[in-house]
From TrEMBL:
Pfam families: Peptidase_C69. InterPro entries: Peptidase_C69. GO terms for biological process: proteolysis. This is Dipeptidase.
Amino acid sequence: MFNRCVACAVGTTRGPAYDPALVDRRFFNWTDTTPIAQIPQVPSTYGYIEGVYPIMNDHRVAMGESTCAAKFVSKPVSGGGRARLDIVELGRLALERTTCARDAIALMGGMAETYGYYGSFWETPSAFENAGEALTITDPTEAWMLHMLPDDTGASAIWVAQRVHDNHVAAVANRFVIREINFTDTDHFMASANVLDIAKRHGFWDGVAPFDFTDAYAGPPDVTLSSSLRVGRVLSLANKNVNVDTFADTTPFFSAKVDTLLTVQDIMRFQRDHYEGTKFDLTKGPASGPYGDPNRYGWC
């Protein structure tokens, strides 16, 4: 395990791409990264590709990432704390060692609980905004969403994962989206053993109402318009009965059934969307200028 420096761990033990003698030094003076922990090795591992964050392995286990605000912050061992793993190293371990999404989640959750999880920052004003992580994790037969944050000791982790129903689409945009957890439905939910106890101890949950993970653990700001709208827009483009207006201040549900099977071109269209045709249309209004420019700078 490494204390990451800017983008990735650098050293001669990870292959030529990470050799300090070969990396591009025009923008950063790379040096060997100091290990901060060790874990037991396995007899063999799978190949994978990454681009700062892990992407996909030999068995088509694939990941996407979205940083989320959370209510607890932890520090790595190298920063005076007790945590040893961040989301990048957890993802690498999962792609190296598992062949399906469900096993990848179990491995990352177990490792984070055992060795401690820390976010992107820990001693800056934005620490809470970057303390949590969401991963989309898929394999050829299942799709899942994982949420993770540090626990209240700084030495472990809290996490939950929900499976996306077949013929459904889900999205995450820098804020947790998993809501009520059905702990008896192990086919669609997985969670750390401490998820309820910590929430109740800190007053995030009364122990009586159905447990809502986002209500309990999503950090400040509690709701950001840009996050909820982006999720709602994806769901509304995939299902014409979803009204994006209902996502103006919350994410009321996790996923939506798609009207038709989505293609690669559909996903590209979703990514290029600027809320055209809705009251949130970024090509309209004074801020879009004389040419309907949807890009905004300095605010979301």
